[in-house]
Every structure is written in C-alpha cells, then in structure tokens.
Amino acid sequence: MSTDTNKQIEYYANALKAPRIRDSAARLAEQARDAGWTHEEYLAAVLSREVSSRESSGAETRIRAAGFPARKAIEEFNFDHQPALKRDTLAHLGTAQFISKAQNVVLLGPPGTGKTHLSIGLGIAAAHHGHRVLFATAVEWVTRLQTAHQHGRLAAELAKLRRYGLLIVDEVGYIPFEQDAANLFFQLVSSRYEHASLVLTSNLPFSRWGDVFSDHVVAAAMIDRIVHHADVLTLKGNSYRLRNTEIDTLPSMRGDNQAD
Ligand SMILES: Nc1ncnc2c1ncn2[C@@H]1O[C@H](COP(=O)(O)OP(=O)(O)O)[C@@H](O)[C@H]1O
Ligand SMILES: [Mg+2]
C-alpha cells in the first residue's frame, strides 16, 4: 500500500473514531497479500477487529458503571459446594435471555452461600450481552428512591431505571423497612414488572418477607410480581467463607431464620 493510501486510511479511521481499523489495516493487508484473501475477506477482517473490540470495551464500560462490590464470575463458582444448584441453570441464565424476556432471578440462602457472588456473575454476563446493569443493596435502592421522592421526581427516577435491563438488589431482609420504605420498594418492583429484570438476593424465605416490609399485604403483592416470571434458586449449607475453619454454624443459621 502506498504511504498516501495509508495516510488516507488513518484519516478516515480517525474520522470514524475507529482506532482499531487504523491499527490493523496495514498489518491485515500484509496478511491478506500473503494468504491471497479477496478484497471482501480483507474488508471483513478489518471491520471485525473494530466490532469485536468495541463490543468488549462496551461490556467493560457497562461492568464499571454497574457498581459491583467485587468482580465475580459464574465460571469461578464452585458448584461442588452447592450440589443442589445446577450448573446448566446458571449457564442458561448467563446467556442473559431472561433479561430480554424481562424475567427475574431470586437467590435465597444463608450467609456466605454465594448469593452475592452469583448475582454479580449474572450482572457481568448481562453486561457482556449488551445489557445495562446496576448493582446496589436493598437499603441503597430504597435510599435512592427516597431521595428521588423527596425531590418530587420518583416517577422520573423509576422511568430512568427502566432503561437498565437489569437491576440487582442484594441483601433483601438484612434490615427491615419502615412502611414508607417498603412502599417505595414495592413501586420499584411494580415499575419493572414485565418491563425489565431484577435479580434479588435474600437470606430469608419468602414467608419471612412480610416482617421485612412491615406489611404482609405489600410483601405478598410484591412477591407475586417478582416470582410470576422468575427463577428462584435456593442455596444451602454452610458459609463458603468458613469452609476452612472449625466454625460450622452462624447465629443467623439457626431455626426459622433461614431461607431454605
Ligand atoms: N460455591 C462457591 N464457589 C466459589 N466461591 C464461593 C462460593 N460460595 C461463596 N463463595 C465466595 O465466598 C464469599 C462469600 O460469598 P457471597 O456471595 O458474598 O455470599 P452471600 O452473599 O450468600 O452471603 C465470596 O468471596 C464468594 O466469592
Ligand atoms: Mg451477600
């Protein structure tokens, strides 16, 4: 290729904000000449470099914007520690099809059984499939909605959040909500119902959610909407955090306080 042509490619690639085309055009041209590619094959190879790196940098941007407390992948999850949980189920959820269908996932189980880990893993998989994701604890979501409500823009906030394909609500049930907070949380759940997905985690079974939301009617209406289109996965056993210690029970794992 002449230097003039190279300069033109560089100019056009910059104008298109496609730096990978600029970087790969000359290198791929050499490869194309050596391997006798057609013009079309060469063009496809150059464009594919740009597209695949845009897709992965888009995913990276979405992952950074999601506010995950840590990076955890479904692939890093040790299924031997959760024999009741099917690898296939998680692999299927990892395709993010549930988000295209505005379905939900609920992860229930005692502390340390991997609820947060899997919720993050699902969020990262969603980001790789092009979905916008936000992660926060139930308490943080309610605080966010309270702030919006106080400024008279609750509806606008809920509409904005509906543009995220997936919201992750971690730790439902660790801290009980007052009536007002419970109502705001209910509005979040209703606003997403059949429009966009939620992944929720809780240490409590649904039967105990009435206590968390200080209102059994609101809790029942909420659970109804959440589970209408949902996969409910129950994690069991001892905390993974304590697996190499002598400790085999935590206070919260006693009796009816357990989500099993
Ligand atoms: N089955 C598992 N395989 C690999 N790591 C796990 C597993 N279960 C839990 N962990 C790890 O143990 C720690 C606690 O898990 P976490 O998801 O925070 O539990 P939970 O949210 O249920 O309390 C995290 O570092 C997580 O990555
Ligand atoms: Mg957790």
TrEMBL record:
InterPro entries: AAA+_ATPase, DNAC/IstB-like, IstB, IstB_ATP-bd, P-loop_NTPase. The keyword Repeat does not apply. GO terms for biological process: DNA replication. Residues 101-233 form the AAA+ ATPase domain. Keywords: ATP-binding, Nucleotide-binding. It comes from the Bacteria. SMART domains: AAA (SM00382). GO terms for molecular function: ATP binding. The keyword Manganese does not apply. It holds the Pfam family IstB_IS21. Gene3D superfamilies: P-loop containing nucleotide triphosphate hydrolases (3.40.50.300). Belongs to the IS21/IS1162 putative ATP-binding protein family. This is DNA replication protein DnaC.
